[in-house]
Design goal:
The protein is an alpha/beta fold. The protein has 10 helices and 14 strands. The chain has 2 domains: 182 residues, Thiolase/Chalcone synthase (Peroxisomal Thiolase, Chain A, domain 1, 3-Layer(aba) Sandwich), CATH 3.40.47.10; 147 residues, Peroxisomal Thiolase, Chain A, domain 1, CATH 3.40.47.10. The protein has a 5-stranded mixed sheet with strand order 1-7-6-4-5, sandwiched between helices. Strands 8-14-13-11-12 form a 5-stranded mixed sheet, with helices on both faces. Keywords: Acyltransferase, Cytoplasm, Transferase.
Length: 343
C-alpha cells in the first residue's frame, strides 16, 4: 500500500434557515416556560437551525440541498472543481430517500460523475467512518482527491401538531438536542503547504450485549400509522457512557501516534449538548489544548458536527500544531477519533 500523506485541503458547511432559540422552541410547541430554563441549564444548547419552518411546517431544505451547498463551499475553499474529485463518500442518519442514495443526488448536482460513491448510514460517528473510508481508498493508490460529506435533517421527525407534553421524555429530549446542517471536507494526496496531514483515524463498535442508547424508527407504507415511538434517546445511559468512551478514544489515539497530552493544540470534542460537552472536555484533561465546540449555538448536527468544528479549527492551525477530534455514537455504542498535524 502506498503510504502517502493525506492532506485535509478545506472544509465547508451550511446551516438551513435562521437560528431557533430556546424561547422560540418552547413557544412554538406550547411547552411550559420552565422548559426554556431547563434546556439552558441542563442541556446547554442555546439555539439550533432547522430545515423545517416552524410556523408553516414547510420543509425549506432537503438533505441533498444542504449537502450540495456544503460540498460546493468545500470545493471552492480548496480551489478545486467537480472534475478534480476521484472519490465521494457521504454519511448521514437521515437520508432524503432510501433510494437513490443522497450522496448520488449531491454528486449529480455538483457535477461529479464517473467516480466511486459511497453512503454510510450512521449517527454521530458516521463522519469519521466516512473519513476513514476515504483515507483508506486514497492510500490504496490511483486516486488523488476525495470529497467527504456529512449531513443531518430532523425535518422528517418534526410533527408540529403534536402535544409535546404528552411525549415520552426520551422523545422530548431529541427535540431540544438536535439541529440540522451539513459539512464537507476535501482530502488530497498532493502536498499543499499549510494544510494539516491526517495522522490517524480510528473507529470501533463496542456495543456487544448492550442495549442501544438511541433508536430511530423507519416506517414504511405497511406500518406508517403505527403507534411505535419514532425516536428514543436514553439520555441517562448516554450521560454515563459517553465521557469515559471519549477518554478511551483519546488515549488510544495518543498511544498509536506516540503523542503526549501536552502535544495536542486543538481539541474537537463530541458535540452532544453544551453541558455534556463541558463534562467530556473536563474529563479529557487537555488544559493546553484549545477547545473547538459549536454545539451550544447550532445543536447536535450529527454527521455534520465534526466538519463544523474542523472548519473553525483549520484557519487557526499553524505549522507544528496538532489537533484531535473525537466522536461517540450511542445508537449501538461506537467510539471514533482522528488526529491532524500541520507539518
Amino acid at each position: 500500500m502506498d503510504r502517502r500523506d493525506i492532506h485535509v485541503l478545506a472544509a465547508g458547511t451550511v446551516l438551513p434557515g435562521p437560528p431557533v432559540d430556546n424561547a422560540e422552541l418552547t413557544r412554538r410547541f406550547s411547552m411550559p416556560p420552565v422548559w426554556e430554563e431547563w434546556i439552558d441549564t441542563f442541556v446547554g444548547t442555546r439555539s439550533r437551525h432547522l430545515a423545517t419552518d416552524l410556523e408553516t411546517g414547510q420543509v425549506r431544505w432537503s438533505l441533498a440541498d444542504m449537502g450540495e451547498a456544503a460540498a460546493s463551499r468545500a470545493l471552492q475553499a480548496a480551489g478545486l472543481g467537480a472534475g478534480d474529485i476521484d472519490l465521494m463518500v457521504a454519511s448521514t442518519a437521515s437520508p432524503d430517500l432510501l433510494m437513490p442514495a443522497t450522496v448520488n443526488v449531491v454528486a449529480d448536482r455538483i457535477g461529479v460523475d464517473g467516480v466511486p460513491t459511497y453512503q454510510l448510514q450512521s449517527g454521530c460517528c458516521g463522519a469519521l467512518q466516512a473519513l476513514e473510508l476515504a483515507r483508506t481508498m486514497l492510500l490504496s493508490g490511483g486516486r488523488r482527491t476525495a470529497l467527504v460529506v456529512g449531513a443531518e435533517s430532523c425535518a422528517k421527525h418534526l410533527d408540529l401538531t403534536v402535544d409535546v407534553a404528552k411525549l415520552p421524555t426520551s422523545e422530548q429530549i431529541n427535540g431540544v438536542l438536535f439541529g440540522d446542517g451539513a459539512g464537507a471536507v476535501v482530502l488530497g494526496t498532493d502536498p499543499v503547504p499549510g494544510t494539516p496531514v491526517l495522522r490517524g483515524v480510528t473507529q470501533r463498535l463496542v456495543g456487544l450485549g448492550r442495549e442501544p442508547g438511541q433508536l430511530v424508527e423507519w416506517f414504511g407504507r405497511a406500518d406508517r400509522h403505527t403507534d411505535r415511538q419514532a425516536v428514543r434517546e436514553e439520555y441517562k445511559a448516554i450521560e454515563e457512557s459517553v465521557p469515559p468512551m471519549a477518554c478511551e478514544v483519546l488515549d488510544e489515539l495518543l498511544d498509536e501516534l506516540d503523542w503526549k497530552e501536552t502535544d495536542v493544540d486543538f481539541l474537537l470534542p463530541p458535540q452532544l449538548g453544551g453541558r455534556m460537552t463541558e463534562r467530556i472536555v473536563g474529563g479529557l484533561d487537555l488544559p493546553g489544548a484549545t477547545e473547538v465546540s459549536v454545539v451550544a449555538d447550532i445543536g447536535n448536527t450529527g454527521n455534520a458536527a465534526p466538519w463544523f468544528q474542523l472548519e473553525q479549527a483549520l484557519p487557526r492551525m499553524r505549522e507544528g500544531d496538532r489537533a484531535v477530534g473525537i466522536a461517540v455514537e450511542s445508537s449501538k455504542w461506537i467510539k471514533a477519533g482522528f488526529a491532524l498535524e500541520v507539518c
